[in-house]
Structures are given as structure tokens and as C-alpha cells.
Design goal:
Layout: H1 2-19, E1 31-41, E2 46-56, E3 59-65, E4 74-85, E5 87-92, H2 102-111, H3 114-130, E6 133-138, H4 147-156, E7 164-167, E8 172-173, E9 194-195, H5 199-211, E10 216-220, E11 222-227, E12 233-237, H6 241-253, E13 257-262, H7 265-274, E14 278-281, H8 287-296, E15 299-301, H9 304-316, H10 321-339, H11 361-367, H12 372-378, H13 381-386, E16 404-407, E17 423-426, E18 429-432
Bound molecules: zinc ion.
Length: 435
């Protein structure tokens, strides 16, 4: 009887979970016909002129050259615009509002409640969407607990506007490795991570985070960067390889992926050995590790713009290494590109102000050696693959979500145009229209 009751109860819980499963903004039966002057399909690199995209409800129904609008359909005239799939930023921090200096960071954790930070987060996600980013992977809340799960829920329930979100909740790091630091040992201060030591604690933390709604697991694999005399960017690794392996194994066992903040030699090497799914930042990656990344299909999310954005402020505060890292990063990016590592677009926005569009990253990728099309692919098809959403987003294809953006001009010729998005549609709902 007891067993039966337990089973019945778990079925009941299941149905509750399903009833609360993410609901998109109700747009059922609404048909939008979007006339695009140019349509850019990142996966093939093809651009077509005068294309009609029909979106029924939240999905793309039809994509064809020319084409007549069906009776009763709302026609959106973008014949002087170029249409692209909705953009994807795979490294955001919606609950952080810029942290050039340690004081910027400490203030947010010490002086702002989680509730206030979540309110600011609602502004971040709205901005992300208006910049044309219809999907994001939010890579940890920086001390705001599980507020990213709540942002995602509020978006999916139609309470606030925002992109599709994959969330990492609390990142993990070891004792003594992550802010807040430098306070008296007699004062308890909050940390921007879940502090985890040893493979058993690590495994438990993965289970806990997944139970509270984490889609991804995020780890910090290194800290304290310095440049060796031979020019290699070195670090102090945080987790041992055994700890990282436990995290990756537990996450993968539960069909979740692991993103690793790894900026330098050992952090990257240990992460790659442990089999994480993406290397975040990767300012320096040894050639041997690039090779392993190709073999294992590990993505590289380079976040170039933020490095340059924070460098001056951090150098002024005494850490000159942030300025020196820029050149090392550029060389690593070129080697990764040449080695054939899969690269996904990610910015670390939140590490810089949400008033700046994440599309600032595109010209940096192009300056570092990508073609504009490769950079667009990084933010569409490649990013969708990293997120396991390749059947849902990343291209303008029948059956996928009606996520599209439009810009005036040709981003294949001038990538900076993506910083001014005139039209945004997410799941068949119009977010922004040309003035
Ligand atoms: Zn980050």
C-alpha cells in the first residue's frame, strides 16, 4: 500500500510538473507573413532575394521565393531589410550589471537583495530580446541563487518579455577561489558561487542544482592569471581533475552539459581532460588541447569583447595581465579557427553593462580572423548545436520556432550592422518593428 501510494504520488507530481512546463506566449492561429528583401541562411551561407517567410502560431510554416500572402494573414514588409535567424548568446549573466572592478561586484552581492537583482534581471532579458537575441544560455547568477530559473519561468509563462533561456543557476568553485574575498575571517560574506570541495560534494551539488532547475552546470576551473616568460598564459587551477570528472560524470549521467570557465593553460587542460562540453573564454589554449577539443567535439566560447572592455579598468586597479591577455587571446582564436574547433558566440554580457548590445562581439570575431558569415554561424547554427536546440532554433526553416531578426544593409559585407536590429520576432510574436 505504501509503495502504491508512493507511486501514485510521484505520478501526481509528474503531472504537476508537466502542467507547469514552459508555455510560450499564446499566439495560436495567428499567421504572420514576413517579406524579406534578403534572407540569410547561415548554415548554407546562401542569401536569397525577395523571400516570404510564413509563421503560423509560434513556428515557421513556409519559406519561399516571392510568394503570395494567404488571405487574412498579417504582412510585415521588410523588403528593404535583410532577415536572419534570431541570434543566440551562449554566455550571459542576466543577474549581473557589470563588474569592471572588484568593488562593482562586491556592491551587487552586499548591497542588493536577490529580489532587487531579479528586478534588474527582468530589464536585462528584455534588452537581450530587443538586441535581437532570441535565445541565451545564462551562465550563472553570481550569488543570486536560483533567480535565473525564475526569470526563465516568468518569460515562459508570458509574464515578462525575454529570450528563450537555458540556465546554469549557481556556478561551482572551490574554497578560497572566488569573490567575495579579502574580508575579515570573522565576517561571513556571500560568494558568487556554490563552494564545493571534493568529488562527493561536487556530485551532490550537481544533483542539487539540477533538482532546482539548472539546465547546464557551470564550473570555474582556474584563477590568478600570469604570463610566463615564454608567453604562455598560466593560472592556478581550482578543481582537481578528479573533482571535475565527478562533476562531468554526474551531469552527463543526468543528460545535462557542463560549461567550464577556463582562461589559461591548466584550467583548459583539466577541463578538456575531464570532458566538459564547452570552454568559456579560453584566452590561452595549448595546441594539444585544441586537438582534444576537436576530437571530443568540445565547443569554444571565446567572449572577446568583454576582455577588451574590462582590461583598462582592471589594469588601472593593478592587474596589468588583463591588458596583456588581449594579444594572447587573438592568437589562440586564430589557432582554434585553424584547428577546426567548433566556436559558438558568447559575450559574458553582465560582465559588461547591459546597455551595450552583445552584437559588439561580432566585429571582434571578424578582426580575429572569422569571415562575417562564420561569425553569424557562431551565433546561430553553432550556438543552437551547443545548446542541443538545433531542431528548434538557429535557422529560418519550416518547423523551427519563428525566431527572426532583420537589419538594414548587408551584415555579410558589414558585420557592425548587427548592432542595430530593426525587427525582432520570437516564437511568432513581434517584439520590435522598424520605425
Ligand atoms: Zn561569465
Amino acid at each position: 500500500m505504501k509503495t502504491f501510494f508512493a507511486v501514485a504520488l510521484s505520478f501526481a507530481l509528474c503531472s504537476v510538473v508537466h502542467a507547469q512546463a514552459p508555455q510560450s506566449t499564446p499566439v495560436a492561429a495567428v499567421i504572420h507573413v514576413v517579406r524579406c528583401g534578403t534572407l540569410i541562411q547561415p548554415e548554407t551561407g546562401q542569401t536569397q532575394q525577395n523571400v516570404t517567410v510564413t509563421v503560423e502560431g509560434e513556428r515557421i510554416k513556409d519559406v519561399k521565393a516571392g510568394g503570395e500572402a494567404p488571405a487574412g494573414a498579417g504582412v510585415i514588409d521588410l523588403s528593404d531589410h535583410a532577415c536572419l535567424p534570431g541570434l543566440i548568446d551562449t554566455h550571459t549573466h542576466t543577474l549581473l550589471q557589470g563588474d569592471i572592478t572588484a568593488a562593482d561586484y562586491d556592491d551587487q552581492l552586499l548591497k542588493q537583495s536577490t529580489a532587487y537583482r531579479a528586478i534588474l534581471g527582468t530589464r536585462s532579458v528584455k534588452r537581450a530580446l530587443e538586441y535581437g537575441f532570441t535565445t541565451i544560455r545564462d551562465l550563472e547568477t553570481e550569488g543570486a541563487g536560483y533567480a535565473d530559473v525564475d526569470l526563465k519561468k516568468a518569460i515562459n509563462n508570458g509574464i515578462i518579455p525575454g529570450p528563450r533561456m537555458k540556465v546554469a543557476t549557481r556556478a561551482m568553485d572551490v574554497t578560497g577561489a572566488y569573490p567575495l574575498q579579502g574580508y575579515s575571517w570573522e565576517i561571513q560574506v556571500p560568494h558568487g558561487v556554490q563552494v564545493v570541495d571534493g568529488p562527493d560534494e561536487a556530485r551532490k551539488a550537481v544533483r542539487e542544482e539540477i533538482s532546482f532547475g539548472a539546465d547546464w552546470i557551470k564550473v570555474y576551473s582556474d584563477r590568478s592569471y600570469f604570463i610566463r616568460p615564454d608567453g604562455v598564459l598560466d593560472d592556478i587551477p581550482t578543481f582537481t581533475v578528479d573533482e571535475l570528472r565527478a562533476i562531468v560524470d554526474e551531469a552527463h549521467r543526468q543528460h545535462h552539459k557542463v560549461a567550464s570557465h577556463a582562461m589559461a593553460l591548466n584550467g583548459v587542460h583539466n577541463s578538456v581532460e575531464a570532458g566538459v562540453d564547452s570552454i568559456e573564454h579560453g584566452n590561452y589554449i595549448a595546441d594539444a588541447d585544441l586537438k582534444t577539443m576537436v576530437q571530443k567535439g568540445i565547443f569554444y566560447v571565446p567572449t572577446i569583447f568583454v576582455g577588451e572592455y574590462v582590461a583598462k579598468g582592471r589594469a588601472a586597479a593593478g592587474a596589468k595581465v588583463w591588458e596583456d591577455m588581449i594579444q594572447i587571446h587573438a592568437e589562440t582564436f586564430r589557432r582554434a579557427l585553424k584547428a577546426g574547433v567548433k566556436i559558438a558566440f558568447g559575450t559574458d554580457i553582465g560582465g559588461f553593462d547591459w546597455g551595450i548590445t552583445p552584437a559588439k562581439e561580432f566585429p571582434f570575431m571578424v578582426n580575429y580572423g572569422m569571415t562575417p558569415l562564420q561569425a553569424i554561424r557562431a551565433a546561430t547554427t553553432n550556438a543552437a548545436e551547443l545548446l542541443g536546440m538545433q531542431n528548434e532554433v538557429g535557422s529560418i526553416t519550416p518547423g523551427k520556432y519563428g525566431d527572426l531578426v532583420a537589419v538594414k544593409g548587408d551584415p555579410i559585407r558589414d558585420i557592425t550592422i548587427l548592432q542595430t536590429v530593426d525587427f525582432v520576432m520570437k516564437g511568432g510574436a513581434i517584439v520590435k518593428s522598424p520605425r
